[in-house]
Structure formats: structure tokens, C-alpha cells
Amino acid sequence: MEKDSQAIGQVAEAWCKDYLCTKGLQFVEQNYHSRFGEIDLIFLDCNSDPETLVFVEVRYRANSDYGTGSETVTIYKQQKLIKTAQVFLQKERGFLNYNARFDVVSISSANDNKESFEADWQSNAFQANAW
């Protein structure tokens, strides 16, 4: 069961990457790891002024019985994402002068079809109080 849900999660994450590209974001990196955790997707929003680096947490939910995807991004998870983003910025010095934001994209199956998805994109879902 866990392998099945991981596989669906990977498919949903790939779908989300394509979805955000169609919305005008420029892909930078996928599954960025640090000792603090992982950031699913990193994009550059060239449509914002100034250009903004976007750290994206993707959450797949088959149903909302236990909350929406964005509701499952706890304070603890937010802290891990912020610390991982800080590591990314320290290593990728070319992005240091960009504004940054954290988005959460909740992916759900359309009509209970695990091959067709819908997205609820929450831009600027939470703030990093101390960069």
C-alpha cells in the first residue's frame, strides 16, 4: 500500500511540475535535499515584480477526510522547508538577491481517477519570518 501511494505521489508531483510550468513558472529543481528535509519543487516566477524564487510543497490527497493537502503542512514541516530553502540559497548563490515565497499545491484525483488530477494552488502559503 505504501509503495502504491508513493508511486501516485510521484505521478502527482510530476503532474504538478507540468501544471506550474503552464502557469508561467520557470522550473529550477525537483526534490532538493538537505539534512533538514526536502523541497518538492523549486521555480522562478518571472511574472512577479521583482522575480521571485518559489519553493513548492506538493501534497496529494485521495480525499479530504483528514484535511486538505495545505492543511497537512504543519508548523514543523514549514520549519523544515524554510531551513532547507536557506541551505539551497547558501549553496546556489545566484538566487540570493531574489525574493522568495513558499507555495503549497494540493493535488487531488479528478472524479476518483488516479490518472487525472486537479490542483488547489495556494501561493504564499506561509511566511519565513527570519531569512
Structural category is alpha+beta
- The number of E-state strands comes to 5
How many domains? The number is 1
> Helix and strand string, N-terminal first?
HEEEHEE
Portion of residues within helices: 25-40%
The level 1 CATH classification is Alpha Beta
Distance from N terminus to C terminus (CA atoms, Å) equals 39 Å
Instruction: Return residue spans where pLDDT drops below 50 for at least 5 consecutive residues.
Output: none
Q: Which strand order does the major sheet show?
A: 1-2-3-4-5
Largest sheet entry: 5 strands, mixed
CATH topology: Trna Endonuclease, Chain: A, domain 1
* Mean pLDDT across residues: 88
Overall description:
With 131 residues, this protein is an alpha+beta fold. The protein has a single domain, classed as Trna Endonuclease, Chain: A, domain 1, CATH 3.40.1350.10. Helices cover 29% and strands 41% of the residues. The chain has 2 helices and 5 strands. A 5-stranded mixed sheet has the order 1-2-3-4-5. A hairpin with a 2-residue loop joins strand 4 (99-110) and strand 5 (113-126). The longest helix is centred in the N-terminal third of the chain and has 21 residues, at 2-22. It is globular.
